[in-house]
Amino acid sequence: MAAIPKTLTDEDRLLPLSALQHWLYCPRQSALIHVEQAWAENRFTAEGRVLHEKAHEGPDETRVGVRITRGMAVRSLALGLSGQCDVVEFHPDGSILPVEYKRGKPKAHRADEVQLCAQAICLEEMLGTRIEAGCLYYGERRRRTEVPFDAPLRALVRETAAAVHEMRTNGTTPAADYEPRRCGACSLIDLCQPKALRFRKGAAAWFERQLHALGRGPWAVKPEARGQRPEARGQRAEGRGQRAEGRGQRAEGRGQRAEGRGQRAEVEASVSRSRKLCAITAKPIQKSTIVNPPHSTEAAPLPRLLPRSQAPDLKTEP
Ligand code: SF4
């Protein structure tokens, strides 16, 4: 989390509390309002403004021992924020209850809770006390919703305040991120033009859009096709397995051929040895002197030389 710069915590440079709510609704909206000083009103902002004006109306009063203060100005140098609380109740037991009035009903985002908690932190800093909870009053429901100021909510307030200060220091407005529901309710839609700025500029962005239009690129994969990917991966793995098996069979064939070559070499070596022996005994090689001639590829035993006494008389042979 970025720290809140010390130079921005001067009284003159405090940011409005509403900047937190705007930031959480849409960072671009917050920048347009608090950096570019742009503003426009629509039905929703007008209704909200009327509700706040009503809440601030009337003098402070005491009801059943509860002191009720309206439109109380607050500020926090720690957060670098200032604003107004719609209503602050001071109870006889010493507890303090800030109440914020909102149009509509509770939202999915935490912007309203953050704004209320920021008010409580301002009151804590000003009054040197601890505030455990506050209330949001929604116009549509016409009743209060209690908001406990727990650690995560307080951390979110500090984080948001730091982000808003950073945005103002940098003076940059984030790009529009078009979201139909959110932008449809935004009073700045005409100034923002989120649809016109929806696409990034530049050659790379243009190229991506062309591919997208042609239905190519990873973003063009349909959800059902994504579901088929594991199956396709399985089939590819199976194919790889079959190819590996084929390679194994070919290797086995090569082994068998090598074995055959080894056997033939052995036979040839045995013939060569017998020739040498014949040369030593000064006798020419005679077919009849070789027993078991190597006709087959089977490993043949060494040719057996007959003793001289049993050898045929070569001179008598034709
Ligand atoms: S129109 Fe949409 S993108 Fe633009 S400021 Fe409003 S909410 Fe943000």
Overall, the morphology is elongated
Distance between the termini: 113 Å
Order of helices and strands: EHHHEEEEHEEHHHHH
Radius of gyration: 47 Å
Largest sheet at a glance? 7 strands, mixed
Fraction in helix: 40-55%
| Model regions low in confidence, pLDDT < 50 over at least 5 residues | 217-223, 287-294
Helix/strand-derived class?
Answer: alpha/beta
Q: How much of the sequence is in beta strands?
A: 5-15%
Q: From the coordinates shown, what is the CATH architecture of the largest domain?
A: Alpha-Beta Complex
Domains (count): 2
Bound molecules: iron/sulfur cluster
CATH classification class of the largest domain:
Alpha Beta
Number of strands: 7
- CATH third-tier fold name of the largest domain: Lambda Exonuclease, Chain A
Number of helices: 9
Output mean pLDDT: 80
